[in-house]
Amino acid sequence: MRVAFLGLGVMGFPMAGHLRARGGHDVAVYNRTRAKSDAWVQKHGARAAATPREAAQGAEIVFMCVGNDDDVRGIVYGKDGALAGMGKGTILVDHTTASADLARELHQKGKEQGVDFIDAPVSGGQAGAENGQLSVMCGGEQAPFDRAKPVIDAYAKSCLLLGPAGAGQLTKMVNQICIAGLVQGLAEGMAFGSKAGLDMEKVIAVISKGAAQSWQMDNRAKTMVQGKFDFGFAVDWMRKDLGICLAEADRNGAKLPVTALVDQFYKDVQQMGGKRWDTSSLLARLEK
Prior knowledge:
Blueprint lengths: L1 E5 L5 H10 L4 E5 L3 H11 L2 E2 L3 H5 L4 E4 L4 H8 L5 H4 L5 E4 L5 H13 L3 E4 L2 E2 L1 H7 L2 E6 L2 H11 L3 E8 L3 H29 L4 H8 L7 H11 L9 H18 L4 H15 L10 H6 L1
Parallel strand pairs: 1-2, 1-4, 2-3, 4-5, 5-6, 8-9
Antiparallel strand pairs: 7-8
Helix pairs in contact: 1-2, 9-11, 9-12, 9-13, 12-13
């Protein structure tokens, strides 16, 4: 299939690569910093475009993965935006973690010119993107989802349609709310065990085989104990995501007391200089 991928950050770069290497698709890429596009083309072949519109022209599906709502609007709208280059019957898939309102807006804007839209935020982090093992949460209509899913499968271990436009973003909010509480609990457990004088590697080895086991424990507990935080999903990104969750909760009436508290803990980490540290750096705050 002829596709486009807009946004070649730590997630988008490998995701677009899987479309080419695993999927065998004809891929056009765009990135605001042209050097990243050129580096991707050097590694994977295919072609780089100067604008989102140029990348989208002739593509059956246009994927994007950028930073936030404003970034999405900047890459989709305008004379050089993706929508300007897309024809009727094509599909726009947004992997950005953004607001549900934006997803509904893009769904409507797409409909006005015959373009289908799927909001499709992902979970699994940089490692999941590089290994092609992402969980993809989708909102939209069944027919375009059925067309897009076999293409998305190039970098997904799970890809489900959760409901109409916005449902993917709402599901990602659930994901981030769950993670926030888990990481804080893990940080407190690691800090407590260390204060108690326990051999934390042995502690992790035994409790990770019981009811306390989680992805966070399996993938972050050892590096937390070692004080290594210079990798992974950045605190800045997590605060952006939690802000979206809290704003949505204000609208729908959900109560998120722990999420709001952990968001403030991440603010403390930012003030410690940890804006780009992994989210597991909540431990550093407790050991301050």
